[in-house]
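Researcher: I'm comparing several assemblies side by side, and this is the next one on my list. It has 416 residues spread over four chains. Same procedure as the others: predict the full complex and return the structure.
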Amino acid sequence: MSHTLGVRQAQKQKTRRALLDAALALLEEQSLSSLGLREVTRAVGVAPTAFYRHFRSTADLGVALVEEALGSLHPMIRTTVSPAEDSDERIDRAVGLIAGHVAAHPAHVRFIARERHGGVQPVREAIRDQLARFAEEVQAELAKDPQSAGWHDDDLLMLAGLYVDQMLNTASLFLETLQAPEEERRRVAAVATRRMRLISIGRGHWLD
Amino acid sequence: MSHTLGVRQAQKQKTRRALLDAALALLEEQSLSSLGLREVTRAVGVAPTAFYRHFRSTADLGVALVEEALGSLHPMIRTTVSPAEDSDERIDRAVGLIAGHVAAHPAHVRFIARERHGGVQPVREAIRDQLARFAEEVQAELAKDPQSAGWHDDDLLMLAGLYVDQMLNTASLFLETLQAPEEERRRVAAVATRRMRLISIGRGHWLD
DNA sequence: TGTACATCAGTGAACGCGCGTTCACTGATGTAC
DNA sequence: TGTACATCAGTGAACGCGCGTTCACTGATGTAC
């Protein structure tokens, strides 16, 4: 006997999903602080008042989008920084993963980049908290690496934060190339790779 | 005989300034894509229609704000990366300059951070162009440094971009500490300093 | 210096429109017996 | 299995409000002579 939601619950979830998806699509071209509740319900095809059955406000919806956009990233983050045979190999893998994620979820990436410093406080806070969690996870992953022997926790967290910011930065550069020829994407990847390499070199000589 | 503007021109400039200042103040709490023309004129105390004597739209005003916020930064940027006796000395000077700039022009910094990935295309483009110019200037400054002997232009530009992003990032972290106790600001400065130091170390061993 | 005309920054009324929120409602789904 | 009642996701009308934009205007400033 499988656990199925009641028909009513299932329909409600479906509408909620539709609202989130419609909002995310609309947010490709504007920011959350100018997103209207009626715009979203119109795009979904429900009455404006239906919105209130799911969210208190568009800010509330925004917070839900943050969880969706960043919550699914935790597994990937770990892979990105986990040790590899070769440093260049890890960097290439990381840049490839970022490029793939941006191609797969462009709207999520755009949303995070846009609202990280956007005009809606609860959303900014939700993003800040998630990114802080990422940095801690990266720190934990880095700590496992033999290369981190002798490092202070503080310095590992500093390095982790640098990596996280670098990932976000690279992701937002990839985003701008999505409509551009492949060549552009390769250029962004090449620069991102060299940036990571330089950071990697700094890491290697940190304790000198 | 000094060159004075006519009374009419002077008054017009004064109103324009007031519109820009009022907009910048309103943008502390929201993003440009939700800023209304009437909000701005109300804050200044002129009729809504007066707005059109100065700007086509709020997007147009936003582009003017980009020029103001970033245009004045070019001299500082040069100082920030110019060579020093000691590498740590240069880093401390750079972090101090950034902290000072954020304290002196918080609204400008917030505006740039917010609209860099914001919902208004012409403004995003204006910011992207200015930041690209910054990177080129930093590259030119770096090229003068004896430490850059043997570097490819490409790699210098890569490093310059890394510095510019790092500056912006640090500025936006300082911004969040403006209302916080001094201690917070010292912590941000300390982390920013170590990040810069790590990048600096990577730079030093780039050609190894 | 004085006069007659041109310019143009800012005004104020008016417009149609979409907004967020309220409210009482409907009717399918869920539950108790 | 059938019946009677409760729940609640989504509806649709209504509200007051502020929006961007248009237009003809006013009156101080500028200019030509």
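Model: For your comparison table: Chain B touches chain A at residues 29-31, 33-34, 110, 113-114, 116-119, 155, 158-159, 161-162, 165, 169, 172, 191, 194-195, 198-206, 208 (CB under 8 Å).
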